[in-house]
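A favour, since you know our structure tokens better than I do. Just paste the record in under my message, thanks.
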Amino acid sequence: MGDTARLVNGAREAGLRVATAESCTGGMVAAAITETPGASNVFDWGVVTYSNEAKMALLGVSAGTLEAHGAVSVEVAQEMAEGARERSGADIAVSITGIAGPGASEHKPEGRVCFGVATAAGCETELVEFGARGRDTVRSLARDHAVALVIGAIKAQGRS
């Protein structure tokens, strides 16, 4: 069974709903989840917020957070995940913001991706340096990592 099937089956068995908020992956996590049979039982909301304006308008990310930390930061990933969870009504929301490349930004390297996973227990964040491995590879690795984070959150919810 693939990871997205584990996510869908685990969420269904636990009675949990999942939402996504994506930037550099452009909807790849939502697409992976919805390619899985039974996804409609656990997934009904995802948003791609590629620009800062979209992050603010659709997810409630603070302009101050964006100014202080930049779009590629765990602080923004946290606000994205929390905003997605709050607006969607999902039990678990995952967010992704990063630099897929090619090239780095002025202060942040190519391959840096920040994640957030919001649940009723709070929001966990993570920064992963995938490295300058090419746009397609960084995006695919980020997608797979986000799916794994949601699976972990589903398992954690089952223990509470």
Remarks:
- The first strand starts at residue 18 and ends at 22.
- The mean pLDDT is 95.
- The two ends are 25 Å apart (CA to CA).
